[in-house]
Model the fold of this input.
Amino acid sequence: MERPDPPSPPPRPGEDVSRAGWLDPVLVGEVQYRQFTGGERRLRHTSWRGLRQDRHVSEVHRAPRATPTHSTSRPSGPL
Done:
């Protein structure tokens, strides 16, 4: 189960991972997130939703890059 390198993504440059331990993924969890960071594609504003026992690790993949959308409409009614 232990491995010498991270499964993905690689650590950020300058990040101290000298004492880190890496494991092969065996569980699947659901995380809600607001956005990815720029070039690093790290999750921002995350919220743990729970384990997904209906999914296998082999089914999990990184979300594709989304084209940014900018809304020009304003919500109706009082804020």
Summary: The first strand starts at residue 2 and ends at 3. The mean pLDDT is 78.
